[in-house]
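User: Structure please.
Assistant: Input sequence and predicted structure:
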Amino acid sequence: ELDRASSKTGETAQQNFSKFGNGQIPTDALAPIGVGTHRLWDPAADAFKKLQRAAKAEGVDIAVESSYRPYGKQVELAKDLGLYSQGGKAAAPGTSNHGWGISLDLQLSPRAQSWMKQNASQFGFANDVAREPWHWTYRSERSGS
């Protein structure tokens, strides 16, 4: 039985998907984000759709390069790009936030990057990898806490 991610207050994607594991989440347990075949954890997908609509309303295009990343793809990227801990651009397989369905790699113009820096936190997203301005992770929507 595949429950799509619960949006219970305080629940994280890792808690919700622990029965599957990082990069092992069935596609139908993730929600579409409205861009191609990209999928995320339900609360992250909903927040991204809101973020993208808000950006578009201001004439800013937020394009998606990557979203949920299965374990096999994490292994492939670690080989191709090297591990972040060793100066590369990939997390160790099984540790990527992409594997929990909460991170996106975005294609951002300078204007879009600026918009994200100013507005993404209102939708629960943070640029949480210092060397990767394109990498944004859903933390949770601002709820007064």
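The beta strands are 31-32, 39-40, 63-66, 103-107, 125-126, 135-138.
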